[in-house]
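Protocol step 6 of 9: fold each sequence in the batch and record its structure tokens directly after the sequence line. For illustration, a two-sequence batch is reproduced in full.

Sequence one:
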Amino acid sequence: MRTLYPEIEPYASDHLSVGDGQEIYWETTGNPDGKPVVFVHGGPGGGTSGAQRRFFDPLRYRIVLFDQRGCGKSRPHISDGADLSVNTTDHLIADMEALREHLGIDRWQVFGGSWGSTLGLAYAQRHPDRVTELVLRGIFLLRRSEIDWYYNGGAANIFPDVWERYLEPIPDDERPGGDRHTDLVSVYHRLLTGDDRQVAQEAASAWADWEGRTSYLAPRPASGDGGPWDLAFSTIENHYFVNHGFLDDGQLLRDIGSIEHIPAVIVQGRYDVVCPMRSAWDLHRAWPAADLHIVDDAGHASFEPGIVHHLVEATDRFAPPAG
């Protein structure tokens, strides 16, 4: 069983101005002369962490992490009033290209899970000549059916107890029931972006708690911390989902032909409730050349042992020879 590489610190980090008053945080770790790889974090709005550097052999990879607009160490942070109107999928794709050029990288491997798989696919389809390989985990194609499954009641059939916490900020007359079919993503959007910041923070914590407690196959404690991380994660994520990810429904499958020549590995937990396996299966059927690894004892999270094994195995496979 493969495990993560040892902890390692960046050898360089900074902020890059990408326009619209936005500065994205970036860092590089590992071998400055190694094979470039960019880690595309989830959410959107999740930000990066040091543990994410450990999916890659630091002797063979030049590891690039960055925080997407409005979250992590990027500036301005959503808790400081970052402008959501300049935070779209097209903006993030352009930011990735600006970062690649800034770092003097010609082509890089793209590694992403959950929303990171969405953005990774969208970036590769826009710039296939800049991508050497794709390593994708917990596939999220941002189709309406996926949003409805997770945020409008489908997953509540598996986690009814946790769902009650998710419903707490929703006014009684807008909760699902009887013949009423409320789009809870839209209700949350109003709460998260309204003038009452206490209401927004409470909604952010409930949204983050729902995702945190359903992401692992093993039980997890409540995860909403009530702080700026919750607010960035929940507000940005909801902003994307209420706008359908700024993608046409089914776009990522429709345009798969543009990247079908790129070597790829897909890693999917069979019991992933956040991004159910149907999406990974649909992607693999549309892209049979991509290797699909189904982990039978895992849910959504990237750090579950079986998921780690296949992700590290994939990055090792695509790494240049040692020495």
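Sequence two, same batch, same settings:
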Amino acid sequence: MKFYKVVIAAFIGTLIALLINFFVKVGVVSAMIAGLSKSSPETTTVVKPNSVLFMKLNYEIQDRTVDNPFGTINFNTMETLENTGLNEILRNIEQAKTDPNIKGIYMELSSIPTSTATLEEIRSKLAEFKESGKFIVCYGEAYSQSAYYMASIADRIWLNPEGMLDLHGMASQIMFYKHLLDKLDIEMQIVRGPNNRFKSAVEPYFLDKMSEANREQMDKLLGTVWGQILKGISETRNISVEKLNELADNLELITNAQKALDYGLVDGLLFKDQVLDELKNLTGNNKKINAISNTNYAKSYKIKNPSKNEVAVIYASGQIFDGKGNDDNIYSENLTKTIRKAREDNNVKAVVLRVNSPGGSAVASAIIGRELDLTKEVKPVIVSMGNYAASGGYWISAKGDRIFADPTTLTGSIGVFGTFPNMKGFLNDKIGLTFDVVKTNENADFGTIVEPLTPFQYAKLQENVVKTYDDFTSRVAEGRGLRQSYVDSIGQGRVWAGADAIEIGLVDQLGDLEDAIAYAVQKANLGSDYKVVELPKEKDFFTRIMESMNKPDEIEAIMKQKLGVYYHYYVGLENLQKNTGIQARMPFDLVIQ
């Protein structure tokens, strides 16, 4: 009888847990549907006369707007968050330039947690907008470096009188796991090629600080990116680079807002109500400011183009993995299917591959590269590099007919490595688990985590890594018209900024996605008779909701919101378990803080 009571209690407990989980998800979906009903994609937004395009870029800006059911919800307030992608932001700015109902652009900025190349593309587009004669104004209660770099393109910059401007220079902090692994008695067995001294992705596993080679490349990389930022601010604010560096060195602008005004970095110290009064004057609206967000403005217009000639922009964003998966990363099966469809579609006259990837699986990179090679045989393939196109991201880019990069794109990182955890000490000594084995062949237990690699097994893996590196450098040499020995000399895992990569032959031209599309049009001889299509085609909102029910998307979204700028440390720990096997991956991420 007691047994049946236990069974019934367990059954009821499980049922209650399932019901709670169900109703929580129903609540989340209901909130999303409620938000959707207010701003359905089918609903056309009407732009009122004398409106301003309102831009608040306080989120990680993806290359493309994605209907992520959980990524657009504030889990504290259940409100809908802005998540307009770079593609729609740029289209909105272009549309607003000639829209008679848009008087100008108003930005509220504090911090923009996204990478430098994305900021560069938006800033460049805003500079084009200014040529229309319409205004750009910006207000911040405080400005981070990323926010101020964006704000510096504005005609007028306003700062809260009690705020501050955080200009302090760039630094990259790398998290090292060596002592953690030592405490857990876990050995991360590293296999690197002999010429991969800059491939520092594995250094956190066996060092507690940067190697001299890594420090050398970081100094060069940060210097180039910081130089680009200072150059931009200097040109728009008419302040010398030397003076900006002096202010950064002395943390001169974080003490009080008045100093930012005194040194000419802002045009006024205003409270929000005063800013609104200024906007009323600029728009000629005495009572109410007509402000329209990026999300809503994108619904106010449709670009109609009857042309049958298509330039396909294929987005390759995220880490590179084998097989099939979701749209948040690059999976070889998903992306090759998209590329193949574009190749076989007679309406597609040229392909622009938009790469925003730090790399990943070497095998998956090779598979994707093969599909691009086949496509290049029948139509132009142009590469546009975003924030990252490094390691595996460069592997798939190397044979493009022409490669475009932003000055601050992180690229190169031509190198490979393998990581193979040995958890014998942890399992045996820390938690008391032991293992025994029966095997038919000498190396039948190859790949186990409960025993270290034998010298023979390590040597075989070393052969694999050396061959993969040779394949990588050979591909780059062939694609870029360079000697393989030269590719090795600029490779060895070293990461380059786009502005430096063009000088050593890894990139053809500095430019953004629009420049790459324009070149593809020219290469395909399309004139003005073409339209741009974006691939892979977006899944509808409700399909993504149903898919997300079986994935931890909501957990990831919550972690991003809670951890903020520290989220990438969490990702680094997550990668401890993901990045095993042979990898072609960039060693770090770089975000302006």
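Proceed to step 7 once all outputs are recorded. Observation for sequence two: Residues 36-42 have pLDDT under 50 and may be disordered.
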